[in-house]
């Protein structure tokens, strides 16, 4: 009997894990949008995002049926609350510490690995790599559960910066704010990094959506050479830089082979220019079978937090200073990958490709 009860407990836990992860995938695939311009960190997105289908549908229903008692108070709320994503957000510790997030972490599992101490008297920028198909592990290791992050890095508040498009849609906007995300706009980053007293971390997925089409298991292609806005902001505010690499992120989904020069890649790049977001042909596993589905594979993701790079505050940095710090950051990212790849099953001959 005990054996059967133990088996039942495991099955129930696995089911809850799958449901929680599916809810996160749903946010990305059905609700969410991605901006092909990536996270430049010094400009607002230059393209107009496509509406999230579910949010748009709910909005249309509310307006068509004239549910004024819903949309009038909400529009009033938006008027006064519109700038919140650029001013530190409105996180809810209650939401961020739901036990359901623990199920999501244990599905893979997700693990955060600390290699160096951070000084809470300073502010920091965490550069997250790679983007992956849906950034589930990369973002999840950083943004799930206040208690987990605080155990490794006491005295810090971390903010996950995402494309501003997420905050344009009713309901989705409030949910994204409650789990601790904020806009990736220059205004938003400057607001957090200029806070006195230190102890604040801005986390940015540097490669943005541009990396998506090159996310394949066993491949490590990072789009970073043209991503220099975060370095300039670090200099402007004196925020120390920290590279973070999520080993296993690119293994969560399979993607149909689309090498550069192939007809599929040409179609995908054309769609990127038209739709403003990446269209990867990816697949994972299902609820009850492993061959095909929207769920990611149950593979561990270890986000290794690297060595902090000290940055001297320079209100008006020159291009030479930006270039020098950017090169230092790329060197540290490469070193982080090379030092830890063997621990996570990556062959010694594999190298990080920076584009």
From TrEMBL:
Keyword Repeat: no
Recorded GO CC terms: endoplasmic reticulum membrane
Keywords per UniProt: Acyltransferase, Endoplasmic reticulum, Glycerol metabolism, Glycoprotein, Lipid biosynthesis, Lipid metabolism, Membrane, Transferase, Transmembrane, Transmembrane helix
One Pfam family, short name: DAGAT
EC number assigned by the record: 2.3.1.-
Main localization (coarse): endoplasmic reticulum
BP terms from Gene Ontology: diacylglycerol biosynthetic process; glycerol metabolic process; triglyceride biosynthetic process
Cellular compartments annotated: Endoplasmic reticulum membrane
Mode of membrane association: Multi-pass membrane protein
Positions of transmembrane segments: 15-36, 56-80, 149-169
Source organism superkingdom: Eukaryota
Enzyme class, first EC level, given as a word: transferase
Family label: Belongs to the diacylglycerol acyltransferase family.
Protein name: Acyltransferase
